[in-house]
Amino acid sequence: MRIAFKEWAIVVDALGSGRQILIQRKGGIREGRGGFGVEHQRFVLFPTQFHQQRDSVIPSAQERFDQIAPTLPGRDRVRVELFCEVAAWQRLDSLADAERLRGQHIWRDEVIAGRLDWGGERNIHALAVRVFRLPRIVELPMQESYGGCRSWIELKEEIAVAGARPVLSDAAFAQKLHQFRTALELTEPFPAR
User: Do strands 124-141 and 22-25 pair parallel, antiparallel, or not at all (unpaired)?
Assistant: First the structure.
């Protein structure tokens, strides 16, 4: 696997612990006029150390951030531990839609509202992902090509995903996926194109 999805380290931690299965994304500045798209159904998570992420999550996640921050690699390296498969996704076109997912993620309400309002279109994408722990942790040197405000990157080297184990049992994942689908009233895993 060479496709990686950039996400805050604290969110990657929440995904890796099974606390949440949800990724919400508006899209990065470098993603252009079309904004974010669910371009890949399978990817590894690329944890970022965006400086404001601690203040952008709920208090319990802030406490967790304080615990993990000293263990994060320096800015010249990235630690890849998790692989994801998209189980369902939906574009949310209103704050009311986004608020239906409250309690299923660690972002503060005002962060979600700000993401929704940012840019030309008023929307945000919600992805429910099945998360797997890689058979071995991989540390990569940070490359200039990995930088910038964008969601998807292609890694310079392959990451082995064979043997990755789900972080949640089938039953626990099914329950969280049901919560996600019910909150958004989804009948299909992916929206019609």
Answer: antiparallel
